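Letters spell out the chain; the tokens describe the backbone. To illustrate:

===
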Amino acid sequence: MLGIIARPLGYLLTWMYDLIGNYGITLVILTVIVKLFLYPLYKKQILSTAGMSDMQPKMQAIQRKYANDKEQLNIEMQKLYKEEGFNPMGGCLPIFVQMIIITALFALLRNPMTYISQERMYFAIHEGFLWITDLSQPDLWILPILAGIATYFSFLMSSQMQTMPGTTPGAGNNNAMQIIMKYFFPIMIVWLARTYPAGLAIYWFISQFIQIFFNLRFNQIRKALKEKNAPKKKRKRRTV
């Protein structure tokens, strides 16, 4: 299934290389193009998460009220979704599409000649870029560390945006898992990047670097939505 997406990306990579003539720059531009293509899906996912976050207090109230009546609980939850115009599955499709494209691109850059038939690309993937002498070989320190740092800040910002107000059962476990992932995942990326081709590490670093700016934008969107949906409070002060 990966080949269905990876091969067209391979054609795009080859066409861009023929146009640019530098494999490293081609990887950077390809990563930017893919991230911009995925931006609407990222945005839809964030908006869906924000909608769920805003509804959390109402959902918790319904769950407490109908804790012993599962059938009525489901009915009331459906009513709430309808009143709020919220689709609980709205964030699933964007995530699914993102994962397919990202995994396919990951597979392409890890083993490019598996999905590219043009012989000239055999030489292209061995080109040097900046301090890297061969993009088909791992860069042992600089790129892995940059990729790990970018992943840390990207994951940190994403986890902060996905934190929902209020407390729910198991919230402590979720927070503990986020703390573990915040430190373990970047370390894992550093370790993996030291074993993968440098071209793949370039993709991951640029991708996570761009994601940081996406998260800054999404944070602004969520704040605007929160202010828009917040109940109007009386600003008049009591006079003595």
